[in-house]
Design brief:
- The protein is α+β, with helices and mostly antiparallel strands.
- The chain contains four helices and ten strands; from the N terminus they run βαβββαβββαββαβ.
- The strands form three sheets. Strands 1, 2, 3, 4, 5 and 10 form a six-stranded antiparallel beta sheet that branches.
- Helix 3 runs antiparallel to helix 4 (142-148).
- The longest helix is centred in the first third of the chain and has 14 residues, at 14-27.
- The radius of gyration is 14 Å and the shape is globular.
Amino acid sequence: MRSVLALGSNLGDSSATLASAVQALEEAEDVVVINVSPLARTKPVGGPEEQRDFLNQVVEIETRLSPHQLLDLAHRIEDQHNRIREERHGPRTLDVDIVTFASAAIDAPRLQVPHPSASERAFVLLPWSWMDPVALLEGRPVRELAREAEDYDDVVRLEK
């Protein structure tokens, strides 16, 4: 199954953390990394105002894992990077979110797919559109959704 994951970090060496997270995905059993977006520097959305900017990236994978197994893997990778969950939208060493899982619609206590706020977050949508210019989310072009997002002007592409 194809899945799109969103990665974010604003504590420590965020660039190295994101690269390490992508490597962890590449090394995971039953996961093949298909595509990786350029990095984006973004303003925090929500949470405390004194936070540093985030680095964000989107990764497309192929996996034989179930959605919940993929979520468990995402949490293990976050834990390996010392993720601490203290406050919603607070600073973090690493965040790994499942944005899509094939065409599945999941509304479970631990997992919602498509990610409930992905369609409103340019920090997810723009890197995704850079990686895959024809990507769709719930039938709409990701590029179009990005332009409609409130944080569109706060996303800066860092690499080609």
